[in-house]
Amino acid sequence: MLEHLNGQVRTTRGQKPVLIYFECYKKKFEAERREKFIKSGRGREQIKKKLGDNLNL
How is the chain split into domains, by residue range? Predict the structure, then answer.
């Protein structure tokens, strides 16, 4: 993250990261399971519906 913020990564140079969505889990395995689902096609569609126009994928 520091490399991105300091402009050391070419693809994000000149752009500041913006947090648009956040989930928190008590157990690591729950977070990993959710991450895997979100990265799936069905999970990605669910996130798109939840965030509407705030997410450009």
Answer: 22-57
